[in-house]
Amino acid sequence: MNGEGLAFTYLAIGRWLAYLCGLSLVGAASFRFVVLSALQRREDGDAHWLKAAERRAATIGITAAAVLVAVNLWRLYAQTYSVFGLDETVSWSVIRIVRADTQWGAGWTMQFAAAVFAVLACVGARVRPRIGWVLAAIGAFGVGASQPLTGHAVSQASPMWGSVALQVGHVLGAGIWLGTLFVLFTVGLFAGDTDPKHSPRVAAMVQAFSPVALLGGGILAVTGLVTAVLYLEAVRDLWQNAYGLTLLFKILLVGGVAGVGAYNWRKVKPTLGAAAGWRRLRRSASLELTLAGLVLAVTAVLVALALE
User: Does the predicted TM-score (pTM) go above 0.85?
Assistant: First the structure.
């Protein structure tokens, strides 16, 4: 692999990991404030089990934010290598140039600061849940809102901030839908056992998640459609250049994720009163999250491609 190909790969991997961590952070906050809050209002809710679920969600947030801090350091190195490393050795002096003197570096600085804040906030959510989760939600929003600042959105001459706002909505929509699903899967589906007593709890959790998925999926679809209209000059661009073909592939994958989600909603959710339904949901949710991971991988490549 030549130097340019290596730089492209480094950046794509860094973006993919950053997306995974960012969506997980947004999902942890959404899970706590929407899904768990709905269950806490139920008179028959198991307070001990809900507290344990809240702590596990905070742990997911801590892990995602801490990994994101490391990933952002990697991304700074990868970006510097892409800019300077092909011609000269990457050193602290050129890293400082990329961080301090470029538009990408300004966006990266905001992302790094948001990630550090999110680590501290999620730790606070474990220690002092009431105020800690509020801070964690702010940190998750900061991470999601800063991610578009190193992509195509800031390269739009007019209207740049409209493009940024669209991408912020796109990231947050994905986090509300797929990030919350990941946390639900980890806390309620994967981390549990096959004891039938857990089935009613999982059913209630999935029931509370359904409107979250619809909201996040709707935001994702609308912002994605508007962004495609903004970035593409004509429909034929979807199959006439690398950016369009990659975007088309992403759309097909998103359709697959939505299709599995619809299957879960219509076919699997009504069976959750039994342990068999719980196991069935775990399998289908695994497929949905796998496809979502592929969507993020394609997105990490898409961001690096020229619009024309």
Answer: yes
